[in-house]
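WARN no homologs supplied; continuing
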Amino acid sequence: MRHGPESTGPEPGPAGTFEASFAIADSIPGWLTRDQARVLDEAARTVPPAGTIVEIGSHRGRSAVVLARALGDDGRLVAVDPFPVDWRYGDDGTEAAFRANVDAAGAAERVDLRVATSREVRTSWEGPVEGVYVDGKHDVWSLRDDLRWAAHVRPGGWVLVHDAFSSLGVTLGLLSVLPLSRHLRYVERTGSLARLEVARPTLRDRVRPARELPWFVRNLVVKVLLRLHLTRIAGWLGHHDAADPY
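OK structure emitted
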């Protein structure tokens, strides 16, 4: 459920409808709900012709398929992921799976895959981007560094952050940046997907993330319950998934 201003979203773009895109993406393993995928789809459809968006953390391509298929024919998604095999969910075949899934979705021509870290790509980046989707490493320092991509986003553009207020590192990273930021304002969240806008925040914008802290505490409790295999009690809190809240 989305928390924030209502939006009807843009009309379907030239790449196909959201329903068609999500039907493809939903067959790809990953952690992106239908409602979150719709937010990604709507954001990508606002990108002008030949515009560029950046995805940090691509895994097997679940979110990349949604983003790339929503772009116009001349749009570009720069997908950034080093595909580490020592990651909890990584293995030797993850990069190949990403490429195969994007190709099967008919989106390969719009995807520019960079097998590198976010910082490696960002420090040599030139030119503006229309938006950034952040789903990289979930520690404080990586999240803060990934948010530096906002300096390349045009005023009024978007930055979407996954696992906001559900991951300790991501939450602490956001809370250490947003209250003092001069160019990022918190808008809303859809589940754990936070939407930020590249704009000067008001005082209300700066304190708005604090309203999400009760939901964050609930998610931490759910994680503890899952580790203790107390799934029934987690269900009492509204969590009915074997995976951590997202």
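The chain is about 35% helix and 20% strand.
OK
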